[in-house]
Fold this protein.
Amino acid sequence: MGLKGREVSVLFTEDHEMARLNKAYRRKEGPTNVLAFSMLEGEVVPHSKVLGDIVISLDTAEREASQMGIPLFQHVVRLMIHGLLHLVGYDHEEDEEAMTMDKEEERLISLAISNEVEHQEA
């Protein structure tokens, strides 16, 4: 992805704070699982290493992971990848964009899982 040496901040929060951010920045009621605030949009600071911020509601992530029957850590990794893709310009508002983003998300999740398996075996 060409992101070596770039920075991302990640904030893990609760539903009440996520609902506040969702309302303030997206004008949507209630919490969401992940928000991404890209530093690559608007006035970009030349030579900045900062891609942006990812905010994850652990309350929502925990509920979703439980519903999907997967470990919370695995779902949080998925949400972080999803947020990272938003930071670098991926979107899912249109069907074609959504398919492209889903493919890249699955590719990166596969890489993360295979790296985790390799790390556990070492």
User: Anything to note?
Assistant: The chain has one domain: 7-121.
